[in-house]
Amino acid sequence: MSDKTPIRLNVNGKDYDIAVEPRRNLADALREDCGLTGTHLGCEHGVCGACTILVEDRPVRACLMFAVQAQGKPIRTIEGLAQGEELHPMQQAFCDNHGLQCGFCTPGFLMLAVGALEAEPDMSDEDLRGVLSSNLCRCTGYQNILKAVRAAARQMRGTQA
Question: What does the alpha-carbon distance between residue 144 and residue 63 come to, in Å, rounded to a whole number?
């Protein structure tokens, strides 16, 4: 008798049929069962934001959500941002504005910022700083991250117009 539950996760438009223990978190399922290692695990307590992904277009800490809770909900991870060889405007802005150093926190920041700006494209600088303050970075000092997200916001508004 198996203690694993079969589930189907829809990640970046692709279905993954996996079997997980009911207590397995979504971050581990994405990394180990789906082979999508772009979602990073930092604190594993929902504090650092390294594991931030989008579930139903909303930023979620994947370490705090059970994989079984995500079944039937569209999930987007860092692997789904680029369109082929073309980087998402947020990814390009992080490169252009030196918004990363070691890169460990970057996938979480990218997914958080994309989710926030897709929900509210005209977010004020103050609100943007508030959103970004929920993720931690030990390297950059945050100024270039904020600069990158502002640049991407302008680009994303331009492409949505």
Answer: 26
